[in-house]
Hints:
Elements (H helix, E strand, L loop, with lengths): L2 H33 L8 H32 L6 H23 L2 H22 L45
Helix pairs in contact: 1-2, 1-4, 2-3, 3-4
Amino acid sequence: xxxxxxxxxxxxxxxxxxxxxxxxxxxxxxxxxxxxxxxxxxxxxxxxxxxxxxxxxxxxxxxxxxxxxxxxxxxxxxxxxxxxxxxxxxxxxxxxxxxxxxxxxxxxxxxxxxxxxxxxxxxxxxxxxxxxxxxxxxxxxxxxxxxxxxxxxxxxxxxxxxxxxxxxxxxxx
Length: 173
């Protein structure tokens, strides 16, 4: 059973990443503020403030996704509704960030992003098969597990089921 450990790992990684993203953007906002330089005529105070606000927003987003993964780990149930959408969106974000970091930062950051992407997808896929065809407990009914249906005529129960029922022939001239 890898479901719960993967959910715990995803929760911890996303919560640490939330703090890291918020701290990095806050630091970048402080750097822009202390340099007091403009980029293409933009206000440095506005750039600093937007970097800090963006860091807080993305940090809260990753923290919320980490909270969803934490709830999945504690409850041992598949995410549903908004939680599932958040986990799918954080997987997409890590895919896009992985593509961007390959060119801008380098392959170690790319490998980290792809590893987190793989963990989130593994979390989604292992809980997805719980009620479907890939149940670990084997308690999900399959097509061969359908109950036998017996036809009950008006006279009482019948021990055999007819192979095919044919409609009566039409007697119209």
